Hints:
alpha+beta, Beta-Lactamase, Arc Repressor Mutant, subunit A, 2 domains, globular, transcription
Amino acid sequence: MLETAALLREVTAGLIASSDFDTALDRLVGTVRDAIPGVTWCGVTVLRAGAPASVAASEPRLGDLDDVRYGADGPAMVAIRTRELVWSADLRTETRWRPWTGRAMEFGVRGVLAVPVDIDAHVVGAISLYAREPGVLTASQQLTAMLLAEHAGLLLGAVRDRAGADPTGESDETLSAGQVIDQAVGVIMTQRGCPATEALRVLRSASAALAIPLRDVAERLVTSVARPRDT
């Protein structure tokens, strides 16, 4: 527990000193990689209202493991969707997330641990711990990861609040439009089991076909889903 306490202190120091959200994510993955025994790399996937917002990796080449590329199929996206810890001690025997696992193996990843992070009402994500050696991610790392996720979520939420509700610095009006479009993208991803990029293409195609602004199409979709069905 002393090691965990030291990790949380280091994470706190790095994140509260961050000038913006993306900087905070970069500092988070670097700190986690260096501080947790057995962890070779660390990644963070963040979604805003169901659409990809930010991704950070402790090693740039591992940015290719951004799970959004694989739709809902990958440890981080499963952790985000189920709000539960996802763990594989040895990817060589893993049968879940086959496309993602194959890519991870190419990068030398042999173990993965993904834990969900709640940042605020509109932003969720997952911290992924990657190991070069199989079997080194154990129950000890799982406990540390869960404590880390809870702590990091609070800090990242504070960074977003300090930067102004959105890390890109959009105005309140633009953000409102972006949120409803993100929500619509999330609905399509859930309905079709497709990645965010394809869901956005579907939404844009509907907008063009109907000659209706993208935001209006998104609002209609979100409203239709939220409306109670007749029994």
